[in-house]
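Table 4 source record.
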Amino acid sequence: MSDHEAKSRSIKELKAKKHHEKLSLLRASVKEIVHREKMEPQFVILFGSYARGDFNGFSDVDLIVVDKNRDQAERLACSIQEQGLADDVLTLNSEEWNQKKKSNSFFWKSILQESICLY
């Protein structure tokens, strides 16, 4: 293995490790907020570059909170943002989420394919 290949491999391994650590931290933090706020969302979903693993120093954390009640989803989204865990948090009720899953929109199709369920 050449020096270039070894460096490239170690950079990929480091990025994979950082990705795993970020996901673990996000999962634990979201779980802690959910329990502290005594909420039971249906899902908290990570999407975008952090979900795909192609994040960089300028990437932000994008989440979707789905709850039966949209107001509850918004309350949890506010708590998540107040803790500095995410930059962008979309909120949907169950019906809206089901509609988005059926959407032909490239945006929603890519979210469904690349997202990671944190809660």
